Amino acid sequence: MSQEFAPSSHPETADALEQRITELEIKASFSEDLLDTLNAQVALQQQQIEALVREITQLRRQMPDGRGDGPRSLRDELPPHY
After folding, report:
1. At residue 6, does pLDDT exceed 60?
2. What's this model's pTM, rounded to 2 decimal places?
3. With CB atoms 3.0 to 4.6 Å apart as the test, which of 22, 58, 60, 64 could cross-link to 68 if both were Cys?
4. What are the C-alpha distances in Å from 15 to residues 1, 5, 6, 9, 21?
């Protein structure tokens, strides 16, 4: 079912195909560059997410009862000089 490509004797057809191939190669090159840029951005965002998770974990450990959720007393909110 597949047809083999036979170069045409018409120079316009060969030139048109050459131009189309060149345009596809350019698009592929830009797509690869964009993919590399997006991959770098995703890796950076993953590092930021991991840092934020570590920071949240550390802040939860600093809570008086060791938990970040649950009711808090307003007396715990008062500054020490009151």
Report:
1. no
2. 0.55
3. 60
4. 26, 15, 14, 11, 10
